[in-house]
């Protein structure tokens, strides 16, 4: 069952220099209990996607299309109604817990504030007990609720953020680069924790990352973004085994090889396009080793395979004749 449906979503930021088309015409589904990985290079629109779903983008940002959740279109809801959904039904884990946690508030007060914002009639003591349980769920003793954020290690702070995001048992968690600021061992522990809590509480998750390694372990399905477009959508296994889009292929090839004899570092030549004046056609065409003439002229169609994969690329359009 689909929990969340994005339909033809576009997001335009307003800047002094003009509009930035951060997302264009993006459609995606998130199923019950699913983990959907969203990957792509810096600036491709991943965080904007999370922000659009949560309704936390700057006020003057223009969001069009539909974000369907629980029978409602979040795009058309007012900010007050969205605030009620945010934190309770859809919550967020950010990259840097230090900027999300208030340095002068004890951990318990972060929890009590979150809980009382949504469960207005709840007593402080009951909220405290909920916080204690949430903290224990992430492997931290409840007596740390008296601590301030600076008294914890980076990994522990991220665990607290996870506990805070899950304390009200939301239906969806959006995790935006949740492990980027952590060292590799702690990263793996945090990903494992996220996965086990997700199974325990039946939560669906959108995992946003620039790192294909992060989604390799955790995601069921993966959406690949480039220059504000969703260029490929696939189940994880097929994507790693046989990527369809030339960009996905290049991304996979640029994962560092752990074979010590292979010291080459592969990267994708060129830079992503400006989203202020995006080029016509496929956004990847200038860097694409397989580009056809049509690729820089017209936006590619979304081609769906029989097994439910999608690729937005002219190479898969049966009507393309020029090579
Ligand atoms: N508040 C804003 N105002 C104007 N432009 C913005 C704003 N936030 C993001 N952008 C622009 O929108 C585009 C997408 O940015 P976004 O942060 O969503 O990408 P990202 O893939 O999450 O990148 P990163 O991994 O670096 O966070 C970029 O061109 C960025 O410069």
TrEMBL record:
Family: Belongs to the ABC transporter superfamily.
Membrane topology: Peripheral membrane protein
Keyword Transport: yes
One GO biological process term: peptide transport
GO annotations of cellular component type: plasma membrane
Major localization class: membrane
Protein name: Oligopeptide/dipeptide ABC transporter, ATPase subunit
UniProt-listed SMART domains: AAA (SM00382)
Subcellular location: Cell membrane
């Amino acid at each position: 069952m689909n929990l969340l449906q994005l339909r033809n979503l576009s997001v335009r930021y307003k800047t002094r220099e003009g509009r930035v088309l951060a997302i264009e015409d993006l459609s995606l589904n998130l199923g019950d209990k699913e983990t959907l990985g969203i990957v792509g290079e810096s600036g491709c629109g991943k965080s904007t996607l999370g922000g659009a779903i949560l309704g936390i983008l700057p006020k003057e940002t223009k969001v069009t299309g539909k974000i369907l959740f629980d029978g409602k279109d979040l795009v058309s809801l007012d900010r007050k109604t969205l605030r009620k959904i945010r934190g309770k039904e859809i919550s967020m884990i950010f990259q840097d817990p230090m900027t999300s946690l208030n340095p002068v508030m004890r951990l318990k007060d972060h929890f009590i504030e979150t809980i009382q914002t949504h469960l207005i009639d709840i007593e402080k003591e009951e909220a405290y007990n909920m916080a204690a349980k949430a903290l224990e769920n992430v492997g931290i003793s409840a007596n740390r609720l008296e601590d301030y954020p600076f008294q914890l290690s980076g990994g522990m702070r991220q665990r607290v953020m996870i506990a805070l995001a899950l304390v009200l048992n939301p239906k969806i968690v959006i995790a935006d680069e949740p492990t980027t600021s952590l060292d590799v061992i702690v990263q793996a522990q945090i990903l494992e924790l996220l996965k086990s809590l997700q199974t325990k509480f039946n939560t669906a998750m959108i995992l946003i990352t620039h790192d294909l390694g992060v989604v390799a372990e955790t995601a069921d399905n993966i959406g690949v973004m480039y220059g504000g477009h969703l260029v490929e959508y696939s189940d994880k296994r097929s994507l790693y085994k046989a990527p369809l889009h030339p960009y996905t292929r290049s991304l996979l090839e640029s994962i560092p090889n752990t074979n010590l004899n292979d010291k080459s570092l592969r990267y994708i030549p060129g830079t992503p396009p400006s989203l202020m004046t995006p080029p016509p056609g496929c956004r990847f065409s200038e860097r694409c080793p397989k580009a056809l003439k049509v690729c820089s002229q017209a936006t590619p169609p979304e081609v769906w395979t029989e097994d439910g994969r999608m690729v937005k690329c002219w190479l898969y359009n049966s009507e393309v004749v020029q090579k």
